[in-house]
Specification:
Largest interface: A-B, 45 and 52 residues
Number of helices of chain B: 4
Strand content of chain A: 25-35%
Structural class of chain A: mainly beta
Shape of chain A: elongated
Largest sheet of chain A: 5 strands, antiparallel
Oligomer: heterodimer
Distance between the termini of chain A: 56 Å
Helix content of chain B: under 10%
Shape of chain B: globular
């Protein structure tokens, strides 16, 4: 088998970019790592878990401390298109103060996952791109990852070694939601995600939600949303949810379209009464911005 | 025509590639028919080593030693635990408890008339509220009745032979959240059930048919329940179509006997049922005094879709009838002390799925025959934690034995568009959004033909799902398992995965497990402790160990895969003039 090392993937077309954008795992220009990593026994002591509540074990993880922006896993390879690299979990505790950098617990460099330095993930999370049916958490028990996003035969993940942001709560009883919309209560700054729908909804937690500009909740520090689970996203759609569209009032649905299509073409229950306005999407790209309303069936 | 795989001699199995042209799963049925005509070409031939190429269906004189032949001794200790076959009740003497069919349907009648649905539903529900047994029977040539949202509480609904009880196609009669019948809305609670079951010892019995009409256009619309479900397929969404039979929390001693179920809009039977008084009494007494005291499903037939075409000429296929699970214990709440025996199931999703979102325990699944479908499954919900009256907490799915089962992917034509998932075998599936304990599961004496996933034990059956409820797969036994090839050109796959080094699966014992035509790349294993033997495991050398899979090889007998016998299963009759 021929082994070749390639650079990490760049965005694979607009559709892919838009899809991952909807789910929070988009891509941007990477910054070159600045610093170095070395194995660190102090960090090593924080790696691993107990097996079935029993003996602590490192579970194949190695501790590293890094300076600057360097990470132990920031040089992945792609072998015939298959990602291969370490999976590293950042540790909340510092590395003992020897370098002033960060601590990581890492797998061997042979997992089918590659650190993705060009992924845009939420605060405190970072990206991996993996092949196959095994999620990154299985290789590295110190890690927690968000919903996966298909990407041309691979799967993109946003992960954290220190835990994910508290999610939203589905509120079926939110009185302000019209039929067809689902109510949500979220910490300020957090959008409802597919996985927040919970495990009891068999086969139903793999879809994304379209949510409007948030409405401040009476509960301090929280917002409410009335969200719509779209049936499908046409593969040629260029419109993505954007809750930062200027002038779009709370409760209305903001969209950023990168092409000539309009939101109501992709999301049938939407009606956009005003023409689009040139602007910048929340991702920082030029787009036509729309403010739309959900029309109950 | 005989259809057996004999026990092989000392020869190593060889890959059988008798077909020179690739054949899609969707065409299997056609080639099956051709092979059935060709006859002997597919029979066992003792002169050829390692014959694993078996087509056709069994004749009357089956070899009783083969799996699938229906010999009670096949399951040994399990058969000792099975209850006697249930019986039909006495015919009610009160005329108010007899509901007569009021229209005629036959093979030329595509869909029954809906004019009297509301009145007929009231008539049936009134009788069920007043009578311990309600019998729906023919009235002269009238053999059909159409109703909607039936309420069955602590009573027996008896559908007599020759009678079909149709579920109305009018979504307004099942309305729950306002989204019932609304295309494109992912609202799994949108509709009420066709039959909602409550109370103590409820039963649905008889030689008749219950037809959900899932593939027929809804009243007032040009699309069907199944088309609504398919519209959400791209997002793996969950449509809120009516469940054909849904047991509510608190049911005890449910019985489903002999009935034939067709074309459910969504799941056919969702079971939550325990022994009277719950699984355990407050003093810790186990109320499972005999197998099946919690629930019994015996001698039923599920065939979905039941026709090749709907009334609009649209081709019906298992793939088209999405999310039509056959029998799902534990879907709504706890299911314990159950028996699922002597049933035939061919549908568009899991044949049986033990759902551990609450707690499923003590289930015997014996002497069943499956056709197309997504498998004899456990999961995907396994995260349940349930506290019984004695204060003890029970988890997920445990104490289940599956014995004497055939899964035959060649049992019916499937049409174009069939997917790989329509031909699954044994599955234990979960993921980190809904994972939990699966323990003490025994799969014994199982034969499969032309399935794609022969054995799938996956802790990330859809790796997109996120969460921190990690699957914990514990003790499982796969014993006397044989997957044979008739004409499938897709190499079968075996997956044996735990979740992580901290949560490995196991011990997983494989004893006499032979998957014909399997290749090195078709076996996946990670984070699992596997014990092989003493019977042969023909893919033992293919099990990868790089990702924390350990293999303890105790194989001492590599000669004798279990023999199989595949009975003919019900299949839709093709339109006149069609070749199968």
């Amino acid at each position: 088998m021929t082994t070749s090392t390639e650079n990490p993937p760049v965005p694979r077309g607009l559709a892919s970019l838009l899809l991952v954008g909807l789910l929070g795992a988009c891509t941007t220009t990477p910054l070159a790592p600045n610093g170095t990593c070395v194995e660190d026994l102090t960090v090593q002591a924080t790696c691993g878990a107990t097996i079935d509540g029993g003996t602590p074990a490192s579970l194949g993880l190695t501790g590293y401390s890094c300076t600057g922006t360097a990470r132990p896993d920031d040089h992945p390879s792609y072998v015939q298109g298959v990602p291969q690299g370490m999976i590293c979990a950042d540790q909340a505790t510092p590395d003992g103060g020897t370098s002033g950098g960060s601590g990581y617990c890492c797998t061997t460099p042979t997992t089918p996952c590659a650190y993705n330095p060009v992924a845009i993930c939420g605060a405190g999370t970072y990206g991996y791109q993996c092949q196959g049916s095994i999620r990154p958490e299985s290789f590295n028990v110190e890690l927690t990852c968000e919903q996966g996003v298909p990407d041309n035969g691979l799967i993109d993940y946003c992960c954290s070694g220190t835990g994910l942001t508290a999610g939203c709560q589905e509120k079926d009883t939110l009185a302000s939601c019209v039929a067809g919309l689902t109510g949500w209560l979220c910490p300020t700054g957090v959008l409802p995600r597919g996985e927040d729908l919970g495990a009891n909804k068999s086969r139903a937690d793999n879809y994304f939600l379209l949510c409007p500009v948030p409405t401040a909740s009476l509960q301090t520090g929280y917002d409410t949303f009335c969200c719509y689970p779209p049936a499908t996203t046409p593969p040629n759609s260029t419109c993505i949810q954007d809750t930062t569209v200027p002038g779009c009032a709370p409760g209305r649905f903001g969209f950023a379209c990168y092409g000539d299509d309009k939101p109501e073409q992709s999301y049938l229950p939407m009606t956009c009464p005003d023409p689009g306005v040139p602007g910048t999407s929340y991702q920082g790209y030029p787009a036509t911005l729309y403010c739309c309303d959900f029309m109950a069936g | 025509m005989p259809n057996r795989t004999g026990r092989r001699g000392d020869h190593e199995p060889e890959l059988i590639t008798k077909q020179t042209h690739p054949i899609s799963p969707g065409l299997l049925g056609i080639f099956w028919a051709a092979s059935a005509v060709a006859g002997a070409a597919c029979d066992k031939n003792n002169d050829i080593a390692a014959v694993t190429y078996t087509c056709g269906t069994s004749g009357v004189a089956s070899d009783p030693t083969l799996i699938g032949a229906g010999v009670m001794a096949d399951c040994g200790d399990v058969d000792m635990q099975l209850p006697p076959e249930p019986m039909l009740p006495a015919t009610p003497t009160d005329p108010a408890c007899i509901i007569k069919a009021n229209q005629v349907t036959d093979e030329t009648t595509w869909i029954p008339d809906e004019t009297n649905v509301i009145a007929d539903t009231t008539r049936l529900n009134t009788a069920l509220a007043a009578c311990p047994v309600v019998k729906v029977q023919a009235d002269g040539t009238n053999n059909s009745l159409v109703v909607a949202h039936v309420i069955l509480t602590s009573a027996t609904l008896w559908i007599d032979g020759g009678v079909t009880l149709y579920a109305s196609r009018d979504p307004s009669l099942y309305q729950s959240t306002g989204n019932c019948g609304v295309l494109g809305v992912n609202d799994s609670a949108a509709c009420n059930d066709f039959i909602t079951v409550n109370g103590a010892s409820p039963a649905i019995v008889g030689d008749g048919i219950i037809d959900g009409q899932g593939g027929e256009p809804l009243v007032g619309h040009d699309y069907s329940w199944w088309q609504m479900s398919d519209a959400l397929q791209n997002i793996d969404g969950s449509i809120g179509n009516p469940t054909l039979i849904n047991l509510k929390t608190g049911v005890t001693g449910f019985l489903l006997y002999k009935i034939t179920l067709h074309n459910s809009p969504k799941f056919h039977v969702k079971i939550t049922s325990t022994p009277a008084g719950g699984a355990f009494a407050a003093d810790g007494t186990d109320n499972c005094t005999a197998a099946g005291v919690g629930f019994t499903v015996w001698g039923i037939t599920i065939l979905t879709p039941s026709r090749w075409l709907n009334s609009q000429g649209l081709l019906m296929s298992p793939h088209f009838s999405r999310n039509t699970d056959g029998v799902d214990p534990g879907e709504t709440s706890v299911a314990t002390c159950g028996v699922i025996a002597h049933n035939t199931i061919s549908t568009g999703d899991d044949h049986i799925a033990l759902k551990g979102g609450h707690w499923v325990s003590g289930v015997l699944i014996a002497h069943n025959h499956f056709g197309t479908g997504h498998g004899m499954s456990i999961g995907s919900e396994t995260y349940g934690a349930f506290t019984t009256l004695d204060g003890k907490v029970h988890y997920g799915v445990e104490n289940v034995t599956v014995c004497d089962l055939t899964i035959d992917a060649d049992s019916r034509p499937v049409g174009q568009g069939a997917s790989s998932g329509d031909f699954n075998g044994i599955r234990v599936k979960s993921d980190s959004s809904r994972g939990g304990m699966v323990n003490n599961i025994n799969f014994r004496n199982i034969c499969m033909r032309d399935v794609n996933n022969a054995i799938l034990m996956s802790t990330a059956y859809n790796p997109l799902f996120a969460g921190t409820m990690y699957p914990m797969f514990k003790t499982m036994l796969f014993q006397n398992i044989h997957d044979v090839t008739c004409m499938n050109v897709v190499a079968p796959v075996v997956t044996l995965n735990g979740f992580s080094p901290a949560l490995p699966a196991g011990p997983i014992t494989l004893d006499d497990v032979v998957v014909d035509n399997i290749g090195p790349a078709a076996v996946e294993s990670a984070f699992a402790n596997l014990v092989l033997g003493p019977g042969n495991v023909n893919f033992a050398g293919f099990i990868p160990t790089a990702n924390d899979a350990t293999v303890s090889n105790k194989i001492t007998d590599d000669t004798s895969p279990t023999g199989c016998d595949f009975p003919a299963l019900p299949a839709p009759q093709p339109p006149p003039g069609w070749l199968r």
